[in-house]
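Regression test case RT-17, inverse folding.

Input:
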């Protein structure tokens, strides 16, 4: 195995471990040693790759988002635009254990962004990437003729806002909100704006 591959593998293990520890413990309580132990590396090696907790946190958030996007975009060329959009919407909610962990990371990001300007800017940039991810899926559907033309940015902002709102209620285990009702409500806006069937397609 080349040095470059080993380095990439080590970073992957560290970032995966960081996501787990931050989600379990909270950013304010984690110590670099805790992440190193979870990743199975020395603290010195962890500091070699990430010299501060703040850098580790932002890299972990980016890592989490990138992994979700890769999973959602699999075989994107062979499925309909509606299925791709439905996959994205499901990934924006805590629909499985991994996404539940991702949501805990987002909640840590929101809290930290309220107190730290650098984190606030990072959070805004991440939202811009999320917005573009949703918008690009909508644009592809419009370009292919599968979707009715609409204001892409307005719809994308609405979908992200709805996902955040319902996601928080789901994370709180609010008994009045279920994953099914949340997805149905969000998709209702998609179907109305894009001329799609009212039933969300299977992913």
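Golden output:
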């Amino acid at each position: 195995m080349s040095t470059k591959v080993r380095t990439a593998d080590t970073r992957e293990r560290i970032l995966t471990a960081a996501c787990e520890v931050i989600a379990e413990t909270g950013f304010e309580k984690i110590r670099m040693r805790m992440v190193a132990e979870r990743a199975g590396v020395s603290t010195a090696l962890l500091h070699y790759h990430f010299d501060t907790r703040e850098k580790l946190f932002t890299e972990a958030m980016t890592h989490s988002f990138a992994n979700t996007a890769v999973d959602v975009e699999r075989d994107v060329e062979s499925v309909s635009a509606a299925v791709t959009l439905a996959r994205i919407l499901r990934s924006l909610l805590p629909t499985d254990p991994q996404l539940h962990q991702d949501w805990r990371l987002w909640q840590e990001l929101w809290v930290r962004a309220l107190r730290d300007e650098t984190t606030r800017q990072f959070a805004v940039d991440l939202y811009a990437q999320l917005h573009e991810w949703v918008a690009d899926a909508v644009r592809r559907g419009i370009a292919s003729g599968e979707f009715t033309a609409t204001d892409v940015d307005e719809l994308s902002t609405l979908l992200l806002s709805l996902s955040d709102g319902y996601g928080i209620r789901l994370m709180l285990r609010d008994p009045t909100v279920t994953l099914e009702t949340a997805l149905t409500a969000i998709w209702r806006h998609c179907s109305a704006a894009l001329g799609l069937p009212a039933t969300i397609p299977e992913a």
